[in-house]
Every structure is written in C-alpha cells, then in structure tokens.
Amino acid sequence: MATAEILSKARDQKRTVLTEIEAKQILGEAGIPCTKTVLAATREEAVSISEGIGYPVVLKVSSVDISHKSDAGGVKVNLADRAAVETAYEEIMASCRVYAPDADIEGVSVQGMAAKGTEIIMGMIRDASFGPVVMFGLGGILVEVLKDVSFRIVPIEKADAIAMTGEIQGRKLLEGYRGQDPADIARLQDMLVKLSDFVDRTPGIEEIDMNPVFAYRDGAVVVDARIILSP
Ligand code: ADP
Ligand code: MG
Known about the structure:
By secondary structure, the chain is of the alpha+beta class. The chain has eight helices and ten strands. Helix 3 crosses helix 4 and helix 6 (158-167) crosses helix 8 (185-201).
C-alpha cells in the first residue's frame, strides 16, 4: 500500500498511531531500508509468510494499542523453524491478551531476522519553536544513559547529516571500536536526508521513531519503527 493510502486509511479510522508494518512501508517508500515485514492474521499465515521470508524470522504483536511491544511479551526473535513460529504466535497472543485485555490486536508482524549491528536511533519530533527536527544517536543502553543525540531542523542537506553523525560523543563507536565492525556512516547520513525529505514533503506527521536501526560495515536497516500522526 502506498504512503498516501496508509495515511488516509488511518485518518478515516480516526487513528494517530500507525502500526510498525505501516510505518516500515512508508519509510521504505521514502527510500529508508527496513526489514521485510508482513502482517499475519493467523498462526497458519505466520508460518507460510515465515517460509516465504526464510528462517530465522521475528514475530511481533501488531496492534495500535500496544506501542511498547517487548513490555507486552509481544516480540520473539530468532525463530528457526515452523514449530518455533507456531509456539511464538501462541505465546505472543496469550501474553498480550493478559497485558492489554482491551487491545485491538490485528495479528503479528512476521519479519526477517536482522544480523546484530551497531545500534542506532533516528527519528523526528516537533519542536514548539523550531517545528520538525530530525534526530540521530547511538541506540541501546548508551543512549538511554547518556542521551547522546544530535538534532537538526528540517529540511537538512547532506552537510547537515555529516555534521550530525560527527558530533555525537560516541562517534568513535561508529568508526569501529576495539574490533567492532565500523558502521556505514555514509548510508546513515543518506537515511537522515531521506527522513528529512519525507517529513518536509508530508504534512501531518507528528513523530517518527526508528529504534533500533542496525548499522553494518555495508548498509543499515531499520528493525523497529513508529509513526505518530498529528491530531
Ligand atoms: P519494542 O516495541 O519493544 O521497541 P522492537 O521491535 O524494538 O520492540 O523489538 C525489541 C528488540 O528485538 C529490538 O530492540 C531488537 O534488538 C530485536 N529485534 C526486533 N526486530 C528485529 C528484527 N527484525 N531482527 C533482529 N532483531 C530484532
Ligand atoms: Mg523498539
């Protein structure tokens, strides 16, 4: 489904929260690489989609009412075969029904299992005085503890993206530290420009949260995404 259709469907349903599946479709269309992510409404569908994507896969609850999926027991990673997918499906549903009894659950998203990379966060928020700003930082525990993030007002150009990746305190981690693979910084910069371009041309986006993005020596991929629409 194209971006315009997803946005108008959400508006028709008087929703401001998009599902991860919708968010990744929109970001993918904006040129930002995301893990392949497909909705399964039943356990059998989850299996057949997993077989199409190829094991190992990840299953996650898909519900506009559950935005912190792990907290709900709604994320199962590294599922290696049909039996693992079937079990994960049942466990996710059981756990989420207890965690959020009134949640409207459309099913699970089935996604390719991304290899571990350098954890990055990217996003967009609206500042009361500056309007939309894009954000870049290191993900994982580091960002939670240190709040090591960089912001720029939309729209940004390549030079701004270069400044953003260069000014975080943990930038050495991007260059490869103590045997860790370096991150594809040029790709991350390109993703930031594409994020800014998307926000700039698309009215009504309140907030975007890509957490985590996994960055590799070559390339990077969005593993989880949230989009909130303006009320
Ligand atoms: P939450 O809604 O709790 O933020 P996430 O979608 O971020 O849920 O999933 C939780 C964690 O599971 C991620 O931080 C990441 O480490 C791992 N994960 C999620 N999706 C994938 C994936 N497609 N491939 C590999 N790891 C994943
Ligand atoms: Mg997440």
